[in-house]
Each structure stands twice: as structure tokens, then as C-alpha cells.
């Protein structure tokens, strides 16, 4: 096992990374102010962007939930990994070779080894598709309408029937049984382990950077007693609940089109891409969940242009059930949601194979809003031939309409439901209202609750502006001004602690890594405050405007400091006995005159 990453490497890698570029791989960012970018927070549910990122100083902070930190903290939180794993992931992406205190290098680290093993396995499986045994898998793919070019494009492979085919091959490349078991490629046994995947066609599941995280495998032979599809289990690098198959190919198109097509299988993804819809993805052996919604929302970001999520659930009972399960989560999407079903019960793969590429487009064009799909499904159970049946259908569908969050949309579907069941709209509206009052809707609680804005006093707001300038434009200060402003005091104890920390290292004002030096002086709530200050948008868009704004804020702070100094001097003057301390009295008076002269310079 590799030792600790050398501290010098940690700092060098961090200096090379662009935080905005790293975050942009997960969050759709837009310019907010000079040097600042904004997007939807990936760590809690929101529809108005409160997540801010800066490259210099390299911090991110969410004003909604309080999440914040540097590039390593971001990867730790977004990928659910430890500190060392975050470093290793970033090093892999940027081509930076890490060294470890025991003399090893990145090739010996745990996460990197698992990714190397997965990539080596993908190469091995692809080569096996060209062997005589692999011809069975190749013919299966051809029978589903996929030619050699498509098979190569998606990196599909074949796992031989042998119990240790992959195991023996990767052991020759230096991988241990323990590593292969941890990667989900092998199973332990008393006889030295055996391959997890045997006699199957395999699809590599990659992350957005093309690294192979795991595999999805379909059985080919009748004698195989396993499930039809077998996926990589949860591993340190593969978490099925937060992975979408095909996202490595689809990400750019999803962002470009503001639309994502969610299908149910690997071959369905291939069919859509080959038919001209490269924005299709699929879940990997799990139901569509909260993490998938957050991932899609991050891809869409914020825009005046509406985004769309199109689910292509199979028209069988399982697909219908999945659609019904999704409608309660509709309000969590920053997009409109639709359902598209193939004719005659055909999924996208079968549809393309039987009716051609154009049929995929026709299926997607015929999509229906998810709410309409669910409402129609509810009323389809009733004949609607008599008043009792129509009333029962309305009662069955009313809870669906009642759960629609958007008032205008809810009113629209109330009218639509009344038309579909041929009842007066007032009667249907009353049913919906009754359900809305009585029904308790259970919803998934966000990971972090959105914070309510604090109404600061004018004095507190100005103190914060002073600290924002101190953090983001420290050259507007000098050591003497900072000491006097800090000495005058801040009403907020947290503000005072940050200011005191800055004063302690005032000799470094204007240093390129000023914020990092300041961060080293703080911890806990004050460190969180520093991140928020570093990312707060200043009311200026150019370097010249920022300089002018900062100069004005510092002048205002100095005026307050001078007022405090004047108050102290006047108090001192009252305490002096003129008959015995004439020189001291004269000195304080001179200081008051000097303060007034200085005050006037800041008033100009």
C-alpha cells in the first residue's frame, strides 16, 4: 500500500489546477462578476444559483447551504472520497505524477490501481470479442443491429467462459487477487479466486473523463444460471447510484441541446446515439434516484431556455411502474419532464432494429408530459361509460393533480382531467382541493437545507464589505491602515477574528497566495466565513472598477477608525488635569488636529 502523498506534490498540484475548470466538469457555471462564476449548488437542491467559484483565490462557497473549500475539498464532497483519493483523482486527470513518502509513485496508490485494473480488463475483454469463442458475443451484437464500428465505438467486449481467464491475464500485468476482488473483477475462493464475469458480453461504464469504473454484462448462454444482466458491485471507484451509462459520450450534447433522454438499457443508449440522439444515457442496474436528479440539474445549470428530461420507460408493467414512481420527483428537476414509449411495446433498441433510425425520432417526438402520462394511466383503469365510472376515475387521478407544485400547471391539468372524464370542472377542482388539504406528501429531504438570508444592520453590512475588500483586493490596504481599522473594532466577533488574523500577517498584504495564507490562520466557522468573503461578488466588473470600489471602502473604514480614535482622544482629554499635565493636554490637542487633517483627506 502506498504511503502518504508528499506535501510538496499536494501544493504543486493544487497550484497547477484551475478550480473553475475542475468544478465545470460537474456544474454548469456562468460568469457572475469579475473573476467569479455562479451555478446551481451540487450539494443541496435549489433552483436559483447560490454556488460561487473563483480561480483566484481558489475557493468555492455556497451561500445557500454553506458548503465551501478548495479544489481537494470539492472533489472529496462531489465524489464521496477521502482526501488522498481526491488528490489522486485530480492527478490522474491532469497527468501529474504523484510521489509518496515511502518512495512509491502514483502507480502504487489504491484508487489508481483499481482504475488501471478496470482499463486493463476493458482492453482484454475487447480483444476477446475477436476470438473464436468471442464470435458468439459478436454475432449477438450484430443480431441486435450493431455493426463492428458501433461495437468498437462503445468499447464492447466479451468475457470468456473460463474461470480464470481475466485473472491470469491481469496477474501477468502485476495486479494482485486482492486488487481484482476490490475492483469487482474477481471473486475470492479457496482455490485462488475466479473471474466475476464469464461467458458474457460486456459494456464498460466510464466516468466523464473516460476512466472505466465498472462493467455491465449480459448473459449469452442458456446454461448460465446467473441474472440476465450482471453489473460491477459497489467498489471504491464505482457507485451505481451516481453513475449514468453513456454520459462520457452524451455530456456535451446534453449541455448543448438542454435535453437528456433517459433509457433503460445499454443497447437502448447505443440505439439512440446511432439514430442521431447522442444525448441518451441509462442508469446502471438501479432505479433512477436523487443523485441522478442532482447530476442532471448540474448539467442543465440555469438558463432562460427551458430544459427537458425525456424518460423512455418500457411500456410493460415494470416500465409503467417506474414512470409512476418518477412523477412524485418531477418538481425536483430544473427541467420539464416527459415520457416517450415505443409503439407495440418496443424499447429503443428493438424499435431501431425493426423500424430503423427514423422510428427513434418519431418515438421521441410523440412524447407526453410525465403528469399527463400518469393521469391517463390512472383513468385508463375505468370504462368512463357511466357517471359512477367517470367520478371514480376523477377521484383516482385527483391525487396526481394535487401534487403538482406549479399553481398554473395544476389548474391546467385540473381542466384537462375534467375534459378527459367528462365532468364539470368545478366538481374536479373540488376533488383536487380536498386531496390537497388532506394528503401528506412525503418528499426526499435535501442533503442540506437552504439557509434563510440574514437581515444585517447597515453597520454590519459595511463591516462585511470591508472584509470582502480585505480578502479580494488586499492591495487597497497597507499595514498601518489595517492595524488602525482592526483596532477600531468590528461589531461581529467572527468578523473581528478574521480581521485580527489578517492583521497578524499584514506584511503579506498583496501576496499572490494571500487568501491561502489567511486561511492557514483560521478554522471552523471563521474559515467558512473567509471562503464566503473570497467568493462574494464585488459591485464592479473590471480591474479598474474594483480598484476604485476598494479604495472607497477603505476610505470609509478609515473614517470610522478616525472617528473612534477621536472619541478615545476626547475621553483622554477629559481625564487630563490641565494644572498638572499641561504638556500632555497640548499633545492630545495636536493629535486631534492631526486627526482632523487626516479625516479631510478621506473626505475628498
TrEMBL record:
<protein>
    <recommendedName>
        <fullName>DNA primase</fullName>
        <ecNumber>2.7.7.101</ecNumber>
    </recommendedName>
</protein>
<feature type="zinc finger region" description="CHC2-type">
    <location>
        <begin position="41"/>
        <end position="65"/>
    </location>
</feature>
<dbReference type="Pfam" id="PF10410">
    <property type="entry name" value="DnaB_bind"/>
</dbReference>
<keyword id="KW-0548">Nucleotidyltransferase</keyword>
<keyword id="KW-0863">Zinc-finger</keyword>
<dbReference type="InterPro" id="IPR019475">
    <property type="entry name" value="DNA_primase_DnaB-bd"/>
</dbReference>
<dbReference type="GO" id="GO:0003899">
    <property type="term" value="F:DNA-directed RNA polymerase activity"/>
</dbReference>
<keyword id="KW-0240">DNA-directed RNA polymerase</keyword>
<dbReference type="GO" id="GO:0003677">
    <property type="term" value="F:DNA binding"/>
</dbReference>
<dbReference type="InterPro" id="IPR006171">
    <property type="entry name" value="TOPRIM_dom"/>
</dbReference>
<comment type="function">
    <text>RNA polymerase that catalyzes the synthesis of short RNA molecules used as primers for DNA polymerase during DNA replication.</text>
</comment>
<keyword id="KW-0238">DNA-binding</keyword>
<dbReference type="GO" id="GO:0000428">
    <property type="term" value="C:DNA-directed RNA polymerase complex"/>
</dbReference>
<dbReference type="GO" id="GO:0006269">
    <property type="term" value="P:DNA replication, synthesis of primer"/>
</dbReference>
<dbReference type="InterPro" id="IPR006295">
    <property type="entry name" value="DNA_primase_DnaG"/>
</dbReference>
<dbReference type="Pfam" id="PF01807">
    <property type="entry name" value="Zn_ribbon_DnaG"/>
</dbReference>
<keyword id="KW-0862">Zinc</keyword>
<keyword id="KW-0804">Transcription</keyword>
<dbReference type="InterPro" id="IPR034151">
    <property type="entry name" value="TOPRIM_DnaG_bac"/>
</dbReference>
<dbReference type="InterPro" id="IPR036977">
    <property type="entry name" value="DNA_primase_Znf_CHC2"/>
</dbReference>
<keyword id="KW-0639">Primosome</keyword>
<dbReference type="InterPro" id="IPR013264">
    <property type="entry name" value="DNAG_N"/>
</dbReference>
<dbReference type="Pfam" id="PF08275">
    <property type="entry name" value="DNAG_N"/>
</dbReference>
<keyword id="KW-0808">Transferase</keyword>
<dbReference type="InterPro" id="IPR002694">
    <property type="entry name" value="Znf_CHC2"/>
</dbReference>
<dbReference type="GO" id="GO:0008270">
    <property type="term" value="F:zinc ion binding"/>
</dbReference>
<keyword id="KW-0479">Metal-binding</keyword>
<comment type="subunit">
    <text>Monomer. Interacts with DnaB.</text>
</comment>
<dbReference type="GO" id="GO:1990077">
    <property type="term" value="C:primosome complex"/>
</dbReference>
<dbReference type="GO" id="GO:0005737">
    <property type="term" value="C:cytoplasm"/>
</dbReference>
<dbReference type="InterPro" id="IPR030846">
    <property type="entry name" value="DnaG_bac"/>
</dbReference>
<comment type="similarity">
    <text>Belongs to the DnaG primase family.</text>
</comment>
<dbReference type="InterPro" id="IPR050219">
    <property type="entry name" value="DnaG_primase"/>
</dbReference>
<keyword id="KW-0235">DNA replication</keyword>
<dbReference type="Pfam" id="PF13662">
    <property type="entry name" value="Toprim_4"/>
</dbReference>
<feature type="domain" description="Toprim">
    <location>
        <begin position="258"/>
        <end position="343"/>
    </location>
</feature>
<keyword id="KW-0460">Magnesium</keyword>
<dbReference type="InterPro" id="IPR037068">
    <property type="entry name" value="DNA_primase_core_N_sf"/>
</dbReference>
Amino acid at each position: 500500500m502506498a504511503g502518504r502523498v508528499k506535501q510538496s506534490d499536494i501544493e504543486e498540484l493544487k497550484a497547477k489546477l484551475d478550480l473553475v475548470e475542475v468544478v465545470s466538469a460537474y456544474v454548469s457555471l456562468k460568469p457572475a462578476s469579475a473573476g467569479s462564476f455562479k451555478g446551481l449548488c451540487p450539494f443541496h437542491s435549489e433552483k436559483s444559483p447560490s454556488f460561487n467559484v473563483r480561480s483566484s483565490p481558489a475557493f468555492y462557497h455556497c451561500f445557500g447551504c454553506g458548503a465551501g473549500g478548495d479544489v481537494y475539498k470539492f472533489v472529496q464532497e462531489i465524489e464521496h472520497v477521502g482526501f488522498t483519493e481526491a488528490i489522486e483523482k485530480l492527478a490522474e486527470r491532469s497527468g501529474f505524477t504523484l510521489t509518496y513518502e515511502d518512495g512509491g509513485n502514483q502507480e502504487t496508490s489504491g484508487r489508481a490501481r483499481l482504475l488501471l485494473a478496470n482499463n486493463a480488463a476493458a482492453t482484454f475483454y475487447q480483444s476477446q470479442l475477436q476470438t473464436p469463442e468471442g464470435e458468439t458475443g459478436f454475432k449477438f451484437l450484430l443480431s441486435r443491429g450493431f455493426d463492428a464500428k458501433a461495437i468498437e465505438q462503445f468499447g464492447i467486449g466479451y468475457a470468456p467462459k473460463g474461470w480464470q481467464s481475466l485473472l491470469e491475464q491481469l496477474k501477468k500485468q502485476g495486479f494482485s487477487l486482492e486488487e481484482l476482488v476490490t475492483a469487482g473483477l474477481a471473486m475470492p475462493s479457496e482455490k485462488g479466486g475466479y473471474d466475476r464475469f464469464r461467458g458474457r458480453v460486456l459494456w464498460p461504464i466510464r466516468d466523464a473523463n473516460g476512466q472505466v469504473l465498472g462493467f455491465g454484462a449480459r448473459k449469452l448462454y442458456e446454461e448460465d444460471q446467473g441474472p440476465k444482466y450482471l453489473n460491477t458491485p459497489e467498489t471504491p471507484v464505482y457507485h451505481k447510484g451516481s453513475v449514468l451509462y453513456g454520459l462520457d459520450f452524451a455530456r456535451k450534447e446534453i449541455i448543448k441541446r438542454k435535453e437528456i433522454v433517459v433509457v433503460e438499457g445499454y443497447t437502448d443508449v447505443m440505439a439512440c446515439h446511432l439514430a442521431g440522439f447522442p444525448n441518451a444515457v441509462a442508469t446502471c442496474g438501479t432505479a433512477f434516484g436523487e443523485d441522478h436528479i442532482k447530476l442532471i440539474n448540474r448539467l442543465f445549470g440555469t438558463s432562460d431556455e427551458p430544459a427537458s428530461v425525456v424518460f423512455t420507460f418500457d411500456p410493460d408493467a415494470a416500465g409503467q411502474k417506474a414512470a409512476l414512481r418518477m412523477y412524485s420527483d418531477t418538481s425536483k428537476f430544473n427541467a420539464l419532464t416527459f415520457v416517450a414509449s415505443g409503439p407495440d411495446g418496443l424499447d429503443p433498441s428493438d424499435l431501431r432494429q425493426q423500424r430503423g433510425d427514423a422510428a427513434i425520432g418519431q418515438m421521441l417526438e410523440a412524447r407526453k408530459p410525465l403528469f399527463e402520462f400518469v393521469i391517463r394511466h390512472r383513468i385508463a383503469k375505468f370504462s368512463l361509460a357511466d357517471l359512477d365510472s367517470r367520478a371514480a376515475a376523477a377521484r383516482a387521478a385527483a391525487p396526481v393533480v394535487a401534487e403538482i407544485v406549479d399553481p398554473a400547471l395544476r389548474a391546467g391539468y385540473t381542466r384537462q382531467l375534467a375534459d378527459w372524464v367528462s365532468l364539470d370542472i368545478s366538481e374536479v377542482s373540488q376533488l383536487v382541493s380536498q386531496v390537497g388539504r388532506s394528503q401528506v406528501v412525503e418528499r426526499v429531504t435535501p442533503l442540506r437545507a437552504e439557509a434563510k438570508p440574514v437581515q444585517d444592520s447597515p453597520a454590519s453590512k459595511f463591516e462585511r464589505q470591508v472584509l470582502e475588500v480585505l480578502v479580494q483586493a488586499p492591495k487597497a490596504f497597507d499595514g498601518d491602515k489595517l492595524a488602525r481599522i482592526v483596532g477600531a473594532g468590528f461589531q461581529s466577533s467572527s468578523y473581528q477574528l478574521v480581521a485580527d488574523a489578517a492583521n497578524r500577517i499584514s506584511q503579506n498584504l498583496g501576496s499572490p497566495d494571500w487568501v491561502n495564507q489567511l486561511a492557514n490562520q483560521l478554522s471552523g466557522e471563521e474559515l467558512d466565513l473567509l471562503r464566503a468573503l473570497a467568493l462574494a461578488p464585488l459591485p464592479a466588473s473590471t480591474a479598474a472598477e474594483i480598484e476604485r470600489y476598494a479604495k472607497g471602502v477603505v476610505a470609509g473604514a478609515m473614517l470610522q477608525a478616525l472617528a473612534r480614535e477621536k472619541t478615545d482622544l476626547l475621553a483622554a482629554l477629559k481625564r487630563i488635569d490641565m494644572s498638572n499635565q499641561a504638556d500632555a493636554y497640548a499633545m492630545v490637542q495636536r493629535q486631534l488636529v492631526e486627526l482632523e487633517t487626516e479625516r479631510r483627506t478621506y473626505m475628498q
